[in-house]
């Protein structure tokens, strides 16, 4: 079994949207389909915002899309430059617990390092001990003194070329 990260194209964005919807459903997260479509279009059209990949499994010549990964970029003085946030790491249920994540973490690190990323962060549900143990095993360190907080705001429509 060969596991690869494959960048989606604009022509495969509907497949990516379907996987994102599966993740939202699995995690019981609210989703606004139009907002998600718009965000996927922005991400695929503007590589400076981050990277998206399909998780492709080649199983005896049969190529299967088993999930997706989204990394968005930010900037951190603490880490000395560009940082990545693993916003989504989704494997379809049939593909979990087979070592795929273990194979993918170094690939994610390589791709993001090539994009100038100095550190990777992610969120894990505090009650998901299996995921927490998995990420700690791969070098992610819980920042126990920090609490991730979010406030949803309504952005002004400013073209990215003006804002950047």
Descriptive account of the structure:
- With 164 residues, the chain is α+β, with helices and mostly antiparallel strands.
- It has helices spanning 13-27, 33-45, 100-114, 129-137, 160-163, and strands at residues 2-6, 50-59, 62-76, 81-91, 119-122.
- A 5-stranded mixed β-sheet has the order 1-2-3-4-5, sandwiched between helices.
- Strand 2 (50-59) and strand 3 form a beta hairpin.
- Helix 1 (13-27) packs across helix 2 (33-45).
- The longest helix has 15 residues, at 13-27.
- 18% of the residues are buried.
Structure described in brief:
This protein is an alpha+beta fold and 164 residues long. The chain contains five helices and five strands; from the N terminus they run E-H-H-E-E-E-H-E-H-H. The protein is globular, with a radius of gyration of 16 Å.
H/E series: EHHEEEHEHH
Count every beta strand, where a strand is a DSSP E run of 2 or more residues.
5
What oligomeric state is this? single chain
- Strands ordered across the widest β-sheet: 1-2-3-4-5
The end-to-end span amounts to: 41 Å
Biggest sheet: strands, sense, closure? 5 strands, mixed
- Please report which band the strand proportion falls in: under 5%, 5-15%, 15-25%, 25-35%, 35-45% or over 45%: 25-35%
* Radius of gyration over all CA atoms, rounded: 16 Å
Shape: globular
Q: Label the structural class.
A: alpha+beta
User: Helix tally?
Assistant: 5
Mean pLDDT: 91
Helix proportion: 25-40%
Q: Which ranges are low-confidence, i.e. pLDDT below 50, for 5 or more consecutive residues?
A: none
